[in-house]
Automatic annotation (TrEMBL), chain B:
Heterotetramer of 2 MoaD subunits and 2 MoaE subunits. Also stable as homodimer. The enzyme changes between these two forms during catalysis. The keyword 4Fe-4S does not apply. Pathway: Cofactor biosynthesis; molybdopterin biosynthesis. It catalyses: 2 [molybdopterin-synthase sulfur-carrier protein]-C-terminal-Gly-aminoethanethioate + cyclic pyranopterin phosphate + H2O = molybdopterin + 2 [molybdopterin-synthase sulfur-carrier protein]-C-terminal Gly-Gly + 2 H(+). The lineage of its organism: Bacteria, Pseudomonadati, Bacteroidota, Cytophagia, Cytophagales. Its EC number is 2.8.1.12. Keywords: Molybdenum cofactor biosynthesis. The keyword Metal-binding does not apply. It is an enzyme of class 2 (transferase). Belongs to the MoaE family. InterPro entries: MoaE_sf (IPR036563), Mopterin_biosynth_MoaE (IPR003448). This is Molybdopterin synthase catalytic subunit.
Length: 92, 144
Protein backbone atom coordinates (compact mmCIF):
# COMPACT_ATOMS: atom_id res chain seq x y z
CA UNK A 1 0.00 0.00 0.00
CA UNK A 2 2.73 2.41 1.06
CA UNK A 3 4.73 1.46 -1.96
CA UNK A 4 1.79 2.09 -4.26
CA UNK A 5 1.32 5.52 -2.76
CA UNK A 6 5.00 6.34 -3.39
CA UNK A 7 4.59 5.37 -7.00
CA UNK A 8 1.51 7.53 -7.33
CA UNK A 9 3.13 10.70 -6.05
CA UNK A 10 6.31 10.33 -8.08
CA UNK A 11 6.66 13.34 -10.34
CA UNK A 12 7.30 12.74 -13.99
CA UNK A 13 10.16 14.63 -15.55
CA UNK A 14 9.17 16.53 -18.65
CA UNK A 15 11.37 17.93 -21.35
CA UNK A 16 10.56 21.33 -22.83
CA UNK A 17 12.28 23.23 -25.59
CA UNK A 18 12.35 26.96 -24.86
CA UNK A 19 13.19 29.59 -27.45
CA UNK A 20 14.79 32.87 -26.40
CA UNK A 21 14.66 36.32 -27.94
CA UNK A 22 16.24 39.72 -27.37
CA UNK A 23 18.13 40.04 -24.11
CA UNK A 24 17.04 36.57 -22.92
CA UNK A 25 19.17 35.12 -25.73
CA UNK A 26 22.22 36.76 -24.12
CA UNK A 27 21.17 35.59 -20.64
CA UNK A 28 20.68 31.90 -21.48
CA UNK A 29 23.57 31.94 -23.94
CA UNK A 30 21.74 30.89 -27.09
CA UNK A 31 18.55 30.91 -29.13
CA UNK A 32 17.15 27.84 -27.42
CA UNK A 33 17.53 25.78 -24.29
CA UNK A 34 16.13 22.43 -23.22
CA UNK A 35 14.57 22.22 -19.78
CA UNK A 36 14.07 18.94 -17.95
CA UNK A 37 12.00 19.46 -14.86
CA UNK A 38 9.32 18.03 -12.64
CA UNK A 39 6.41 20.29 -13.35
CA UNK A 40 3.98 21.05 -16.08
CA UNK A 41 2.83 24.66 -15.81
CA UNK A 42 4.10 27.96 -17.14
CA UNK A 43 4.65 29.17 -13.56
CA UNK A 44 6.79 26.15 -12.70
CA UNK A 45 8.83 26.65 -15.84
CA UNK A 46 9.29 30.33 -14.97
CA UNK A 47 10.54 29.43 -11.46
CA UNK A 48 12.88 26.82 -12.88
CA UNK A 49 14.34 29.24 -15.43
CA UNK A 50 14.78 32.03 -12.90
CA UNK A 51 16.69 29.72 -10.54
CA UNK A 52 18.88 28.50 -13.39
CA UNK A 53 19.41 32.00 -14.85
CA UNK A 54 19.12 34.52 -11.97
CA UNK A 55 19.76 37.44 -14.37
CA UNK A 56 16.21 36.96 -15.65
CA UNK A 57 14.94 38.59 -12.45
CA UNK A 58 16.67 41.85 -13.46
CA UNK A 59 14.36 42.31 -16.43
CA UNK A 60 11.55 44.86 -16.40
CA UNK A 61 9.15 42.07 -17.35
CA UNK A 62 9.29 38.49 -18.57
CA UNK A 63 6.41 36.81 -20.33
CA UNK A 64 6.27 33.25 -21.55
CA UNK A 65 4.51 32.52 -24.82
CA UNK A 66 3.01 29.12 -25.57
CA UNK A 67 2.15 28.35 -29.18
CA UNK A 68 2.43 32.02 -30.21
CA UNK A 69 0.19 33.36 -27.45
CA UNK A 70 1.07 35.08 -24.15
CA UNK A 71 0.46 32.51 -21.41
CA UNK A 72 -0.65 32.81 -17.77
CA UNK A 73 1.38 31.09 -15.03
CA UNK A 74 -1.44 28.59 -14.38
CA UNK A 75 -1.45 27.33 -17.97
CA UNK A 76 -0.39 23.72 -18.48
CA UNK A 77 2.46 22.72 -20.76
CA UNK A 78 2.99 19.75 -23.01
CA UNK A 79 6.32 18.70 -24.47
CA UNK A 80 5.16 19.46 -28.00
CA UNK A 81 4.33 23.09 -27.21
CA UNK A 82 6.32 25.89 -28.80
CA UNK A 83 7.53 27.80 -25.77
CA UNK A 84 9.31 31.17 -25.89
CA UNK A 85 10.73 33.72 -23.49
CA UNK A 86 9.42 37.21 -24.19
CA UNK A 87 11.48 39.95 -22.49
CA UNK A 88 10.23 43.58 -22.64
CA UNK A 89 9.32 44.28 -26.24
CA UNK A 90 10.59 47.35 -28.09
CA UNK A 91 9.30 47.21 -31.64
CA UNK A 92 8.21 50.18 -33.69
CA UNK B 1 -1.46 42.60 -45.12
CA UNK B 2 0.83 42.01 -42.16
CA UNK B 3 4.48 41.51 -42.87
CA UNK B 4 7.80 41.16 -41.03
CA UNK B 5 10.61 41.72 -43.50
CA UNK B 6 14.38 42.00 -43.72
CA UNK B 7 14.11 44.11 -46.86
CA UNK B 8 13.53 47.87 -47.03
CA UNK B 9 9.82 48.59 -46.65
CA UNK B 10 8.05 49.84 -49.77
CA UNK B 11 5.88 52.49 -48.08
CA UNK B 12 3.68 53.03 -51.13
CA UNK B 13 2.94 49.30 -51.33
CA UNK B 14 1.68 49.26 -47.72
CA UNK B 15 -0.50 52.30 -48.46
CA UNK B 16 -1.86 50.65 -51.62
CA UNK B 17 -2.88 47.57 -49.59
CA UNK B 18 -4.86 49.77 -47.21
CA UNK B 19 -6.62 51.84 -49.87
CA UNK B 20 -10.28 51.34 -50.71
CA UNK B 21 -12.67 53.10 -53.08
CA UNK B 22 -15.10 53.57 -50.21
CA UNK B 23 -12.52 55.42 -48.14
CA UNK B 24 -12.40 59.16 -47.64
CA UNK B 25 -9.23 58.92 -45.57
CA UNK B 26 -6.01 56.96 -45.59
CA UNK B 27 -3.84 57.42 -42.53
CA UNK B 28 -0.21 56.34 -42.50
CA UNK B 29 2.29 56.07 -39.66
CA UNK B 30 5.94 55.73 -40.61
CA UNK B 31 8.40 54.87 -37.85
CA UNK B 32 12.03 55.78 -38.51
CA UNK B 33 15.33 55.16 -36.76
CA UNK B 34 16.46 58.09 -34.58
CA UNK B 35 20.15 59.00 -34.55
CA UNK B 36 20.47 59.59 -30.79
CA UNK B 37 19.57 57.82 -27.54
CA UNK B 38 20.65 58.60 -23.95
CA UNK B 39 22.47 61.63 -25.45
CA UNK B 40 24.70 59.31 -27.46
CA UNK B 41 24.99 58.81 -31.18
CA UNK B 42 23.28 55.69 -32.46
CA UNK B 43 25.33 53.94 -35.13
CA UNK B 44 22.59 51.47 -36.03
CA UNK B 45 19.76 49.40 -34.57
CA UNK B 46 19.43 45.64 -34.63
CA UNK B 47 15.79 44.54 -34.86
CA UNK B 48 14.73 41.02 -34.03
CA UNK B 49 11.26 39.45 -34.11
CA UNK B 50 9.58 36.24 -33.05
CA UNK B 51 8.07 36.33 -36.50
CA UNK B 52 5.20 33.86 -36.33
CA UNK B 53 3.98 35.27 -33.01
CA UNK B 54 4.54 38.88 -34.10
CA UNK B 55 2.30 38.35 -37.12
CA UNK B 56 -0.33 36.66 -34.92
CA UNK B 57 -0.24 39.47 -32.32
CA UNK B 58 -0.43 42.23 -34.93
CA UNK B 59 -3.36 40.43 -36.56
CA UNK B 60 -5.20 40.43 -33.20
CA UNK B 61 -4.53 44.18 -32.87
CA UNK B 62 -5.80 44.93 -36.39
CA UNK B 63 -8.87 42.75 -35.76
CA UNK B 64 -9.56 44.67 -32.55
CA UNK B 65 -9.15 47.97 -34.44
CA UNK B 66 -11.62 46.83 -37.07
CA UNK B 67 -14.17 46.15 -34.31
CA UNK B 68 -13.73 49.63 -32.90
CA UNK B 69 -13.51 51.63 -36.14
CA UNK B 70 -14.96 51.09 -39.63
CA UNK B 71 -11.72 49.96 -41.27
CA UNK B 72 -11.98 49.48 -45.02
CA UNK B 73 -8.40 48.34 -45.45
CA UNK B 74 -5.15 48.04 -43.52
CA UNK B 75 -1.49 47.24 -43.95
CA UNK B 76 1.29 46.75 -41.41
CA UNK B 77 4.91 46.11 -42.30
CA UNK B 78 7.76 45.87 -39.76
CA UNK B 79 11.37 45.62 -40.70
CA UNK B 80 13.97 43.49 -38.89
CA UNK B 81 17.73 43.24 -39.18
CA UNK B 82 20.24 46.10 -39.20
CA UNK B 83 18.78 49.60 -39.68
CA UNK B 84 20.67 52.87 -39.85
CA UNK B 85 19.37 56.28 -38.67
CA UNK B 86 16.75 57.62 -41.05
CA UNK B 87 15.63 54.21 -42.29
CA UNK B 88 11.99 53.15 -42.03
CA UNK B 89 11.39 50.53 -39.34
CA UNK B 90 7.60 50.24 -39.42
CA UNK B 91 4.64 51.36 -41.53
CA UNK B 92 0.99 51.23 -40.49
CA UNK B 93 -1.68 52.29 -42.99
CA UNK B 94 -5.46 52.24 -42.57
CA UNK B 95 -8.37 53.54 -44.56
CA UNK B 96 -11.80 54.53 -43.26
CA UNK B 97 -14.76 56.51 -44.66
CA UNK B 98 -13.88 59.61 -42.55
CA UNK B 99 -10.59 61.05 -41.29
CA UNK B 100 -11.11 61.02 -37.52
CA UNK B 101 -11.54 57.23 -37.45
CA UNK B 102 -8.43 56.80 -39.58
CA UNK B 103 -6.26 58.82 -37.15
CA UNK B 104 -7.60 56.94 -34.13
CA UNK B 105 -7.34 53.47 -35.68
CA UNK B 106 -3.81 54.09 -36.95
CA UNK B 107 -2.66 55.31 -33.53
CA UNK B 108 -4.36 52.36 -31.80
CA UNK B 109 -2.53 49.90 -34.03
CA UNK B 110 0.95 51.40 -33.66
CA UNK B 111 0.55 51.94 -29.89
CA UNK B 112 -0.54 48.34 -29.34
CA UNK B 113 2.08 46.97 -31.70
CA UNK B 114 4.78 48.70 -29.65
CA UNK B 115 3.31 47.31 -26.45
CA UNK B 116 2.52 43.71 -27.47
CA UNK B 117 4.23 42.54 -30.65
CA UNK B 118 7.26 40.35 -29.83
CA UNK B 119 9.81 42.53 -31.59
CA UNK B 120 13.01 43.84 -30.01
CA UNK B 121 15.63 46.39 -30.88
CA UNK B 122 19.19 46.78 -29.74
CA UNK B 123 20.90 50.16 -29.97
CA UNK B 124 24.50 50.05 -31.08
CA UNK B 125 26.67 53.00 -30.00
CA UNK B 126 30.33 53.77 -30.56
CA UNK B 127 31.12 52.46 -27.06
CA UNK B 128 28.70 49.57 -26.66
CA UNK B 129 25.24 48.20 -27.26
CA UNK B 130 22.03 47.73 -25.34
CA UNK B 131 18.61 46.06 -25.68
CA UNK B 132 16.03 48.83 -25.38
CA UNK B 133 13.76 48.93 -22.30
CA UNK B 134 14.93 45.53 -21.10
CA UNK B 135 16.21 46.60 -17.70
CA UNK B 136 14.50 48.87 -15.15
CA UNK B 137 17.45 51.22 -14.69
CA UNK B 138 17.58 51.87 -18.39
CA UNK B 139 13.84 52.38 -18.60
CA UNK B 140 14.15 55.18 -16.04
CA UNK B 141 17.00 56.76 -17.97
CA UNK B 142 15.05 56.61 -21.20
CA UNK B 143 12.16 58.54 -19.66
CA UNK B 144 14.28 61.30 -18.16
Amino acid sequence: MALERNVLIMEVTSRYKVRAFGITKDIIGGKETVVEMEGSTVGELRRYLVSRYPSLTGLRSLFIAVNHTYAEDAQGLSEADEIALIPPVSGG
Amino acid sequence: MIKITEKAIDVQKVIDTACSLGAGAVNVFIGTVRNTAHAKNVLWLEYEAYESMAVAEIKKIVDEASHRWPLLGSGVSHRIGTLKPGEVSVVVAVSTPHRRDSFEACQFIIDNLKEKAPIWKKEVFEDGEEWISAQPVRAVEAQS
